[in-house]
Each structure stands twice: as C-alpha cells, then as structure tokens.
Write a structure and sequence with these properties.
alpha+beta; Glutamine Phosphoribosylpyrophosphate, subunit 1, domain 1; 7-stranded antiparallel beta sheet; 7 helices; Ntn_hydrolases_N; 5-stranded antiparallel beta sheet; Alpha-Beta Plaits; 27% helix; transferase activity; transferase; 2 domains
C-alpha cells in the first residue's frame, strides 16, 4: 500500500502555492506510506540550461563537488543545495560531462530536465517535505509519493518518483508481475536502471516509447498491453500530467478538477484541503483509461 498525490495548476496565480498545497496532500497520505517519500516539482526553466538533481548521503560533500564541478566546466554553474540534494544548472552541451563528473565524485543523479527537480528520502512524508522545503516551492505541476515497501528494501534509491528520461518521472501504487522481462527488453534498447524496483521499469517503458515518438498519452495507452499487474500511475513531463489505472483498478484513486487545477489523490482526504474543492468536479478515474493534461 502506497499513497500518490499530484497537482496540475491551470491558473498562473496558484503556481506560487504549488509546494504548499502538495506538501499538505503528501502529509495526508502518511499512513499509506510511512517508510519513505518523494516528490517532483516542475518550476521555472532557463534557456539552454539543464537542471541536474544530484544526491549524496553526506550533505557536506555536495558543496565540495559543486565547487569542483565549476572548475571542471570552466564556469560557475547555478546551484541550490537542499539538505542532501543538489540542483545544479549546466549548459545543455555540458550535461553528459557534468553527469560523469558528479557520478565519478560519488554523487547519484536523481533526475534531469529543463524544469523538473526531484527530492526523495527515507522517513515520514512530513519529515521529507520539511527536509527539502517543499511548502516554499512554486511551479506549474508536481507529483508525490508515500511508500510502504513490500517487494524491495527501504532506501533512498527505492523511493519514488522514478525518472528515466529528461523532465519525465513516475509514481506508482501497485505491483508489476512482468517487470523483469520488460527490464531486459528495455536494457537491450539502451536504457539503464539503478534499482530492482518494478516502478522504475514502468518509468523506463514510458521513456522508451516517448523516445520512439509516442506522446505521453500514446505511451500510457501502449503500456496497458506491455505491463502486467495492478497499478495506478501518475506521470509528469515538462508540460504534461497524466493518470492511468490498470484494467482491474483495485488500487484506490480519486480526482478533482476545477478551472484552476487538476488534482489526484489515492484517497479523497488528500484533496479535501484544496481551494474550491467544494465546487470541484470529483470523479474516480475509470479503468484502463488515460487522463492527460498539457500546458501550451
């Protein structure tokens, strides 16, 4: 049992409140996932720059590596340190060099994109949200996850969201039965995986299909044939937000839509504190149907 939340802002005036609202939603799902938690925020971008989210068990190492990275690249890269995560913005042409330098220095690449920043850690959701200052973040959309581990160890790497492509991430409640065979197929297609978690395979499948030209909606529709098991997915991309439940849909899910936002929660109580919820269109996503929204 895990908890999922997501919020896609339509009204620009609400973007400054994204972190505050998502933080409250995440905290509400604590009893569905007390082992670890994580979230992705899609914030502002800068032309020709890529944000790398990097992590290390020792926060002091982040400042040292960040300074050495500046020397390696030959320019001061914009950076923000939040606890044991480092967000560093590098020129698009330098992304691979920066990745190689960071991993060589013992840091882990959590995600990368023009707009996406990912934070995740072991601990209660309220502690994780406070550790990284989620309530003070702004952006257009975000997704979050509270994990109750059932098939793999409780580790930072095993926490959600999982990201396997630029500005792409996924959170998942459920269990995939064919993730090992799908992982082997995706590895042959050039994807790599850092964990044995089935959710990372789902993220990788979507990355592969979108790399081959599918839209987010099309990739999710194709996943209904490729991925076996019980699942609810909430997915974020640079400009998109999507939800999919498996054909049986035994995992709980509820959504709310107003003219200002679209929200997802594993349970209604995750949505109860949102502004205007009393007049929102509340609905349960149908089985095997893709729900997707995208910013122009």
């Amino acid at each position: 049992m895990c908890g999922i939340v997501g919020l896609f802002i339509k009204a620009p005036e609400l973007e400054q409140d994204l972190g505050r609202l998502l933080s409250a939603m995440l905290e509400t799902m604590s009893d569905r996932g007390p082992d670890s938690a994580g979230f992705a925020i899609y914030g502002a971008d800068k032309a020709d720059l890529v944000k790398l989210t990097l992590s290390h068990s020792d926060p002091a190492a982040l400042e040292r590596v960040a300074g050495a990275l500046d020397t390696h690249l030959g320019y001061p890269a914009e950076r923000t340190i939040r606890s044991n995560h480092l967000i560093v913005s590098v020129r698009r042409a330098d992304e691979e060099r920066a990745r190689a330098f960071a991993t060589g220095a013992g840091l882990r690449v959590v995600g990368a994109g023009k707009r996406m920043e990912i934070f995740k850690e072991v601990g209660l959701p309220i502690q994780v949200a406070e550790q990284f200052g989620l309530a003070g973040m702004s952006g257009t959309h975000g997704i979050g996850h509270t994990r109750m581990a059932t098939e793999s160890a409780v580790t930072t790497n095993g926490a959600h969201p999982f990201s396997t492509g630029r500005d792409q991430c996924l959170v998942h409640n459920g269990s995939l039965s064919n993730h090992n065979s799908v992982r082997r197929e995706l590895t042959r297609e050039g994807l790599s995986f850092e964990t044995e978690n089935d959710s990372e395979v789902a993220a990788g499948y979507l990355t592969w299909r979108m790399r081959e030209g599918a839209s987010l909606r099309e990739a999710l529709e194709e996943s209904l044939k490729a991925l076996d098991g019980f699942y609810t997915f909430v997915v974020g991309t640079e400009n998109g937000f999507a939800v999919l439940r498996d054909p049986v849909s035994c995992k709980p899910a509820v959504m709310a839509e107003t003219r200002d936002y679209v929200a997802f929660g594993s349970e209604y109580r995750a949505l109860a504190g949102l502004p205007g919820i009393e007049s929102a269109h509340i609905f349960e996503p149908e089985p095997a149907k893709v729900y997707a929204w995208e910013r122009a």
